[in-house]
Amino acid sequence: MSMLSRVQAETKILPPRVVIHGAGGVGKTTFAASMHKPIFLPCEDGEGILKYPKFPCPTDYAEVMDAVEDLLKADHEYRSFAVDTIDHMEPLVWGETCRAHSSGKNKYDHIESFGYAKGYLF
């Protein structure tokens, strides 16, 4: 089949994906709370006095994925999703990496247990 017969011209419109970076107290959470019908995954206690819909603070990566899966599959009113904050979710990812690669004699209790930079590659 000719590649010319497979040329596509339509544009697929995807929702925006935004990462907001800044020092504490500059309004990152407030900005995210102003999005259209938001729900938060609070991975730290950074909300202050703001009131908004949120999942419980996850204690492991499986809870992060459960929240995302619920948003993808269940009927709900939320139209925006904010992780507050990514840097506090990162250790949950590291923990899952250690769990997933630990077996038999190979037990990894920290992301750096793999050896120089290897855990981060996984």
Number of strands: 2
Strand residue content = 5-15%
Shape category: extended
Report the biggest beta sheet as strand number plus sense, adding barrel if it closes. 2 strands, parallel
Unreliable stretches = none
Adjacency order of strands in the biggest sheet: 1-2
How is this structure best described in words?
The chain is 32% helix and 8% strand. The chain contains 4 helices and 2 strands; from the N terminus they run H-E-H-E-H-H. The mean pLDDT is 90. The chain has a two-stranded parallel ribbon with strand order 1-2. It has helices at residues 28-33, 61-73, 86-101, 118-121; strands at residues 38-42, 80-84. The two termini are 38 Å apart. The longest helix is centred in the C-terminal third of the chain and has 16 residues, at 86-101. Helix 2 links the parallel strand 1 and strand 2 (80-84). It is α+β, with helices and mostly antiparallel strands and 122 residues long.
List keywords for this structure.
single chain; 122 residues; alpha+beta; 4 helices
Q: What is the secondary structure topology, with strand pairs?
A:
Blueprint: H1 28-33, E1 38-42, H2 61-73, E2 80-84, H3 86-101, H4 118-121
What's a concise summary of this model?
The protein is of the alpha+beta class and 122 residues long. The protein has four helices and two strands.
